[in-house]
Every structure is written in C-alpha cells, then in structure tokens.
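User: I would dearly like some help making sense of a protein record. This is the protein in question:
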Amino acid sequence: MISRDEALSIARQWASAGRPGPAPEVELYEFDLGYVTWRVLPGAPATDGPPAPPPSTGFPRAVIDRETGEVSQWRSLSAPLVAEEYARHRAADGRFPPEARHVLEKAGWFPGRDVTASVDHWMVRFANELVGLECPPVARAAMVEFGGLQLPQFGRSGRLGGGFTSYIHPTLGGVVTEAARAFAEEYDNPVYPLGNNEDGPSELVVDAHGRVFMLHWADDFFVGPDIDSAIAKLIRGGDLTEASDLDWG
C-alpha cells in the first residue's frame, strides 16, 4: 500500500519528468483507490479545497494507484471528478481483452460513457423504420454505451484495420430492418438493430437476452452471447457460428 508520503515522492517525480530545474510543488487529493495529483502553478493562490480545472489542455492530472504506485495521466478535471473516472476505469478492468479495450478506447469509449441524447434522437428520426420492433433494455444500454463508435477489426494478418469495421448505432447512415424482421420470423426470436458491419455489408442485431447476431447476405451468424463478448469478437475477428446451428430450445 502506498502511503501519502510515498505518493508525494512519486508525484514529485511525475511533475519533474522532462523539466529542468528543481521539482515543482504538487498537491494531492486522496481517495479510496489512490491519490490525484497535479502541479501547483507558480503564483497560484492557495485554496481550501480541490482547485478548479486549470485552463491548460492535455493531461495535467495524474492518479497514483494506492496498491501499486502506478501513475496514469488524466484530463484537466477537478480532482473529485478524476477520482470518479479512475474508479470507473478500475471497475472495467478485465471486462475486455487488452487488444479489444485498446481499440475501444482509441475509438472513444471509456467506462461510464453515455450518449443517451444521441440514441433518443436516432430512435425518433428513424421511428417509421423501427415501428413494430421492440427495443429491449439490453439493446438500449448497448447503444447508450457504445453508440456512434467505429470499431476496426484485426485482419487475418493480425494488422488492425485489416478486417471489417463495425459501426454501432446511432450511425451517420440510416437503418435497415428487413433482415431483422426476417430473422425474428424465422427463429421466433425478436431482435433489434445494433449497428452494421462492412462485411457484406451486414446488419448487427441483438435480442432480449443480449445475444448478438450478424445478418449477412450469405447467412445469419452468431457473434456472441452478450454485448461485451460480441464487441470483443467483432474487434478480434475470426470465424462465426451459423445461427441455424444454435440450440434454440
């Protein structure tokens, strides 16, 4: 466990990195998972509480993990908000394979991401196309968290972008529902549009159980048993099981 004195020493090393001269002053904000730290600007007035975000850009905040002492850099937010973001980040550890999480974060995802307003606007805009399709809670939650992301895929060579990119609703384009309706009728399993994929192109849909399917012109495929597994599969690539091979009982 990292003590406050040890955190101060680590914070000073972080603040001095790449800077000539004496180590700048730092402040610490302690929370249950560690310490938020930031440089004290010369001439900055003293404050009784966490200061407001400085006008600078980039990552002028850092978090020192209480257990490991690992330092990570964070956006220019107030210390309590940085602590909240760090807690969400830690809670998501292990949720996705490292390579999938890297792609997600590069695409703009972060723990706690919420694009509710965009999803609501999309659902109203395409209400006529979506009529008769019930949006299960799992579908809405997936779009609220991942909506608008473009997720490149690792190709067979292992190169990112060498496969087929997936686009999660709401997307810039429209929505196609004929395949979703046909799938629901064939398998007696209602599904809701989740996005689309460049392969085909094809449609991505999700059912009330959170199972994700790819509706391709060649066949209907099973992507994953839940949203997280399906997201990871879409990023990592690989062969898919035909939906007709599933045990629908």
